Amino acid sequence: MLRRPKPTDSESDLLREQEQFLSSGTQSAVNIVRRPDKRRGDIASDDSEKSLGNQRDVVTIPDFPDQLPTLTPAPPKKSRFKKERVCFEDEDPEELLDRHDTHISAVLSRIIERDTSAVPVSFPAFTGTAFPKVLHRSTIQTQVMAPRGKKSIFASQIAAQNAKVRGAESQKDPLVSTPQASGSSTVDGPLLLSGEGLGPDKAEQTLKIHQENQTRLQGMSHSEILEEQKLLLAQLGDTDILKALSPVSPPPQREVCPDQPESKTVQPQLDELPVKPQKEWLHMDKLEPEKLEWMKDLPAPRRQGTKKAMQARFDFSGTLIPPAEDLPVHLGLHHHGDEPELAGYSLQEIFLLSRSKLTQQRSLALNTLAHILSKAHAGEYSTCLSGSVLASLLDAGLLFLLRFSLDDSVESVMSAAVRALRALLVSHEDEECLDATFHWLLGTAVFPLIPPVHEEEDEEDEEGLAKSKKEMTKEREERKLDHDVARQDIVKALLKMQLLQRLRYILEVVRPVPRTVLDVLEILIRIARHSTFAATQILDCPRLMETVIYEFLPCTWTPTSSPYPPSLYGLPVSTVMKLLRVLSSTGRHVCARILNSLGGRRCLSRFLAMEPSVLLLEPGEAICCSTEALRLWAVSASYGQASKLYIDLYPVLVKTLQAAQKPCGPSEPLQLLELQRITALLSLLTQVTHTAGCHEELQSALLRVCSYYCRSSSIICQPVLRAPSPVAVPSLPSLGCCRAQSARGLVASESPLPLFTALFYLLDNLTSIHRGLAKNVGLNRNSLLVRFILFLITAVTTPAVPSNPSSAHAPLFHQVALALLSWLLPGSEYLVHKLVSTIVFSHILLPEGATGGPEAATLAELQLQEKFTPLTGLGALLRDALSHLPSIRGCYLTHLAHMEQAVLSSADRHLGRNPWLTSQLLPELTGPSMPSDWPFLPLVSLYEQAGVRQGGGLQVVALPAGALQSVVYCLQWLLLLESWREQALKTVPAGAKLARLACIFLCSSDLFLEQPVQELTWALLRGLTQSGRLEAIDLGTPPPGLASFHDLYVALLAQYEAVSFGDALFGCFLLLPLQRCFSATMRLALFGEHVGILRSLCVSLEQLPVPLESFTNPPEDSLPLLGLYFRSLVTGALRSDRCPVLYSVAIAHLNAFVFSQDAVSQEVEATRRSLLRKTYYLTDEVHPCRLLLLYVL
């Protein structure tokens, strides 16, 4: 049985199947008939007309040619009759017809009747019934039917009945007999001879030949007849002729030996079929078992013994089905795929099902995709599947599939597409975290969810660079294809595909069910969080926001009796208020449009003037609407807008604050919603305080709120359950919040941190404006607890440093400040400036300088009993660095001058200068405001200014003014951190530290020769090469900002060869990467390309900061490097008086290699013998290699 082609078959598989089909001789199931084009006047059309006998009258005109003259250009012939017609403009067709066909006899005379004289006439059979018997298919099929050919079923039945009647008549006629009935061996006439070609008397000649044959056969014996038959068969020989002449008889049954394998093409019995065919079924006369295989019972899923990955299959709820799980078929998870025994649908099959013609199948596929996307966002597949499900779906074209499905005319398919798009774009956990942190310090400010820009996107060819500069950015974006835009930014691609217009049509015209309405609103919220551009697109979409506010945020509505209304049209929806709040946070102008043009101010008055209990809504929805209205007002107040509304609603706000003192038991279901509403009110008061100043009328209310919430709070933060983070895609950024993390902890709905944060933030602002309020509130700003809370929660919004910190707590404050400096994100540049200028370089927070820290460092250095120490002790260097802390701070502030504009913009937000704020969106999140290796900033900045790469080398120009002092201050600060704040530089890899310090030698030709730089660099190098830190150096991983450490090392070699003057410090930096634990490429670069350095690399064994064993153990196994060692020794480039360290290393490795007794390969053995032979033939003048033998002896 031939196999059907599969989608996974390659071209070679299809060709092989085609050869099998052609060799089998099976008749094709489809016949291709090529019909001639009648409009083109094909010849085949004329032949078909002649074969049908369609003779037509031919009109001929005298003195005219038979064919039309050729015109230029010739008109196309669209009819097959045009070539036989000739018509002139000045000639009447009627006259032409009358002239050539004058009488009707010209037509009637050509009618010839068919001769029916020889056609037999059969009369119908006589029956005893009044009407003919009705023909039933069930009765006719059991009889022998005449061959139908292309006859219909009815015609075949009539022919079969006529054949039956003729058979009955022939049995009644005694004159008709057959040879089988008579039983004689002779017949009256020939059975094989027809008489063709014998002339007019063929009947007589045929009979004569037949009689002669009969006479000859009668005269022959039986043996002679068999002999002549064998002779005749031998002469014929052709099996086809024998088959044609031999009578058709059933094939004999042959015995099959048990040892021989049975044939593969065995016709199955009826008992083996899954269903027994019935005679009433159409087209079941010929059994096709391969088409009935799907009706058999499915085999049990097989367990694979290998660890090969299998295709993931999902059920309709998005749950991953194990491959070996046997599920019942009534669940609808089995289908006719490549693996019918496995339950579930793969992603490819779901995509195929989503393009089905059946509405139910399209809806089912889209709903399944929605469940899969939701679970993928939650990270449920991260431990089960290899790779990202989201990335696989997006690469397969999921975004375009959902966009096409939104244009479906069926509402169920459209709703399923909206649900799937919401599952793709929206992260419920991220929204919960953003709502929970809205009341934190600067919680109204959020980062835009813009994908990072790849570097390769900005790189263009040199030819197109000039042209691209002339074109505008908008034009370049419009020229991009949707597919290219979707790979970079999904939200931008959806905006380009006119998603907003389609969503407006769904809300305005389709008017879907509540679930779909909420999904559309959440999609709009996610698009608004993308950027200010996306928010502006939402506002500019015609009738979109007008429809949303008119339908789902009315000022008057009819209450519903059901908590789940069948339609949300005409009812307030809290999600719409949240959408307005998110849109307002994108910019001051957007907020003004919402308040003034779209009626946002009227909505605030409507939902805040009344208590949630009298809003004629479901209680939870009413509280949510009031909470979102307060948050929208807080965002508006952060721009200094809607300030007059505060005067109008002041009594309502005071009443709400007073109602907050009412005890709220933990059993009440609306407790969490009420707490969120109070927290939103405190955030509103904070923004109003920033805008309009402090109001004395709020003192009593604030005292009561503070005394209540600080005294009683029954909600306890529970530990956070760590869950695997979801796999995100670069084109769809998110916060990466998991359900397990957001359900518990600081951002949970039960956490008291949002309330306390908002309360303390408000109190801090009030007490900073009015100093007298601090005594009334009862808080001591100088107490340790309040300072710690204000420091952590408000992120050092107060510039004051603890005046009298104890020696035990001062290092803690300093460690927190140093850690916080590397954690602050864009938008917190003001905090970076405050930390650097007040806390980081404070003498008070470095008590080690006053408690014997330098002396202890000196004693520790003496206790090590090192062979070589810097010119100045470590203690003296630390004391000198402490004395220059103000200058060090000024140096770092100078290098942060490029952040001045960002610091000023961030200061407006942190200091509450609301009238100067333009947007609550923070700068694009590309990383921390300060890199983790910020203490090396002066060195890196000087390297970028002084060094210019050209042709793979490094060209050094003159140093800027004050560069030496800047380097000294940087090294002093690094020495302080490495000595007393080692944890502050834990995030910087040891290899990166070594690469940053190497910038000292690449910045100038003589900077590293200065005595302060030498002393400080020696101290830092000793600290990096201590026994506990040396093992942490990893040069295989590229340091941040470098492609590889090897490139930096090659630049160091070139610089040392040019300007080193044999400096020992520079030489130690070159020797460190040559240790045996690092890659051999750097040793090959030194001994192969820069072998001249060996004449000046005169670092002694005493000056070496690491043990010599780290260079010699384990033995070298690189044959090219061993050859270079041998060559440098033979040529005299490597000598003990010039380069003692590498001389000892080369001697040790060559001896270990040449005289090793280990079993090695043939190549290594040949190299070893070659080195021994060369060493033996060396003269005494080349004595270094002679020492190889003496070393072993």
UniProtKB/TrEMBL annotation:
What Pfam families does this protein map onto?
A: RPAP1_C (PF08620), RPAP1_N (PF08621), TPR_RPAP1 (PF25766)
Keyword set, alphabetical order: Nucleus, Transcription
Q: Which InterPro entries match?
A: RPAP1/Rba50, RPAP1_C, RPAP1_N, TPR_RPAP1/MINIYO-like
> Composition bias, kind Polar residues: at what positions?
20-30, 177-187
Q: Which residues form a coiled coil?
A: none
The RPAP1 C-terminal domain is annotated at 311-376
Q: Domain of life, per the record?
A: Eukaryota
Give residue ranges for domain RPAP1/MINIYO-like TPR repeats.
935-1160
This protein is called what? RNA polymerase II associated protein 1
